[in-house]
């Protein structure tokens, strides 16, 4: 769904380097290589108006300046039918997202108006049998862990791959550390 011919913008969460490296490494190992066009990510919004990147970026910079790094808990593995994801808990980030929902409500797609269910998909588009085997293998060694949300990343959807547009760090007072 493009508006005025501009490809939509996607907003994701920037996780700490150690957590990102772990999740992206798993995604590279588990995702079908010919379909893995983007890094591991936590999507906050799937489709922001592509014709207004400056306005959106200004709002994100203001939000980032008022937001400190926030704790994130990687709580469990979840089946996706044809893939596997890690479920996250991030109350501080959820509050930030809720504020952005209020700001952009008129422009949001139905998907982006839905309650936020933060997760990182590390496998998708495989057979249900392969997904079940991956889920069992990952669950056998899984233990919840703590991470940090360090900022936001804005992307432009390019019909498959994403183009990185900006990284907005959280520069406000830090939230409680896990």
Total strand count, please? 7
Number of helices: 5
- How far is the N terminus from the C terminus? 39 Å
Task: Tell me the structural class.
Answer: alpha+beta
- Specify the CATH class: Alpha Beta
Beta strand %: 25-35%
Helix percentage = 25-40%
**What number of structural domains do the residues give?**
1
CATH homologous superfamily caption: Cyclic phosphodiesterase
Taking the sheet with the most strands, its summary is: 7 strands, antiparallel
CATH domain topology? Cyclic Phosphodiesterase, Chain: A
Shape: globular
The value of Rg in angstroms is 16 Å
User: In the CATH hierarchy, what is the architecture at level 2?
Assistant: Alpha-Beta Complex
- The overall pLDDT average reads 94
Order of helices and strands: EHEHEEHHEHEE
Molecular structure report:
This protein has 178 residues and is of the alpha+beta class. The chain has one domain (9-169): Alpha-Beta Complex (Cyclic Phosphodiesterase, Chain: A). Helices cover 33% and strands 31% of the residues. It is built from 5 helices and 7 strands. Strands 1, 2, 3, 4, 5, 6 and 7 form a 7-stranded antiparallel β-sheet that branches. Strand 6 (145-157) and strand 7 form a beta hairpin. The model has no long low-confidence stretch (mean pLDDT 94).
């Amino acid at each position: 769904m493009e508006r005025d011919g501009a490809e939509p913008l996607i907003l994701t969460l920037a996780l700490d380097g150690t957590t990102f490296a772990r999740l992206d490494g798993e995604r590279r190992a588990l995702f079908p290589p010919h379909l893995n066009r983007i890094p591991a990510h936590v999507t906050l919004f799937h489709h922001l108006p592509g014709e207004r990147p400056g306005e959106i970026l200004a709002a994100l910079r203001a939000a980032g300046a008022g937001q400190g790094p926030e704790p994130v808990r990687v709580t469990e593995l979840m089946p996706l039918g044809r893939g596997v994801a890690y479920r996250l808990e991030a109350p501080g980030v959820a509050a930030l997202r809720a504020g952005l929902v209020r700001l952009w409500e008129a422009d949001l797609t139905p998907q982006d108006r839905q309650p936020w269910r933060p997760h990182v998909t590390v496998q998708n588009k495989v057979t249900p049998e392969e997904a079940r085997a991956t889920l069992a293998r990952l669950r056998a060694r899984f233990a919840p862990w703590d991470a940090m949300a360090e900022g936001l990343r804005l992307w432009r959807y390019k019909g498959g791959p994403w183009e990185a547009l900006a990284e907005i760090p959280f520069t406000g007072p830090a939230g409680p550390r896990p």
